[in-house]
């Protein structure tokens, strides 16, 4: 099956093989070809270049992209798409003055979602989650990481991870699964942290590893949730089973969790609304990707990740949605890219790099996703006719994606 996209006004994020991520000043560069073609063989990008070099072949499908931009699909490296019900009441409580912390202290927040999830059947959970997955595919996401973490019981966590596996089996989007048993302490373990850590390490992890249900391990390293020392125990236990850490850290407070994550070889550190100079130092020259989640900052009115400061220090940065029922009931990467430009003062080039190649690194899939590169998966987006790709973040409330290809096939 051969697909040829012709007359592309701008083909964005064109990279040689081997580029895993971009950092610092390099984030401002978004390599592009004007008036280009893109050749897809089966599910793989096989060639691209200027129209003057377009091969004369009999393609099965030819798409004329006159006036349109073509770019790699968005990579959403941090989501909690699998959940039951919603938390609209907490949304209204926050409008009326309560904070996220106050709501959590009253038994709301993560524990609210966990209660609901444990009362929901696996079938129902799958049905609710697939609607969200279908929506983000339409919005241009071509790869998504999905976390557990609303079970907080052996059965609940396994149920979530099985749903993630079923989504992976049934949809063309690339999915990675992360075990987040250490998302919050269930009420019965509030005064018995040791007991819950033992449950995660001795019961949940061996079962998850046996069924091969997760790729990564996560913990919510935060004041009032998992301490740095507790997070280190979770990371070590995960690594024993081959799960690389990707950690929630520095959302509300900086407690030196980032240093611990770097020490344990975390693939990414996510949230980073509060970042100290020491945190930035420790991330320099590490293999750990910082991930910002601007829709979360927007929705619960907390600071935005200091992107400018981090990029100026030479760091890379990825962008993801954090799609979840509490702090970010949206999986729209177009909004994330726009909000990063508008609120974090990232340039469109930096934001697109952060939402494609750097997101792929944060998901451990940079070899196959995140750029227009020969041999990579043909997960690409074709926009509506645009004057320039700047219109993607400029039109912040709109979706300018007209066509979505996953594995070389048009799905939208
Ligand atoms: N901060 C931790 N976890 C989620 C929110 C969880 C929730 O409130 O349900 C987040 O990334 O924002
Ligand atoms: Zn999250």
TrEMBL record:
Superkingdom to which the source organism belongs: Bacteria
Cofactor(s) needed by this chain: Zn(2+); Fe(3+)
UniProt-annotated binding residues for N-formimidoyl-L-glutamate: 150, 324, 326
EC number from the UniProt entry: 3.5.2.7
Record GO biological process: L-histidine catabolic process to glutamate and formamide; L-histidine catabolic process to glutamate and formate
Main localization (coarse): cytoplasm
Amino acids binding Fe(3+): 78, 80, 248, 322
Keywords: Cytoplasm, Histidine metabolism, Hydrolase, Iron, Metal-binding, Zinc
Enzyme class: hydrolase
Entries under InterPro entries matching the protein: Amidohydro-rel (IPR006680), HutI (IPR005920), Metal-dep_hydrolase_composite (IPR011059), Metal_Hydrolase (IPR032466)
Substrates-to-products reaction catalysed: 4-imidazolone-5-propanoate + H2O = N-formimidoyl-L-glutamate
Location within or outside the cell: Cytoplasm
HAMAP family: HutI
Known function: Catalyzes the hydrolytic cleavage of the carbon-nitrogen bond in imidazolone-5-propanoate to yield N-formimidoyl-L-glutamate. It is the third step in the universal histidine degradation pathway.
Protein family membership: Belongs to the metallo-dependent hydrolases superfamily. HutI family.
Descriptive protein name: Imidazolonepropionase
Organism of origin: Flavobacterium stagni
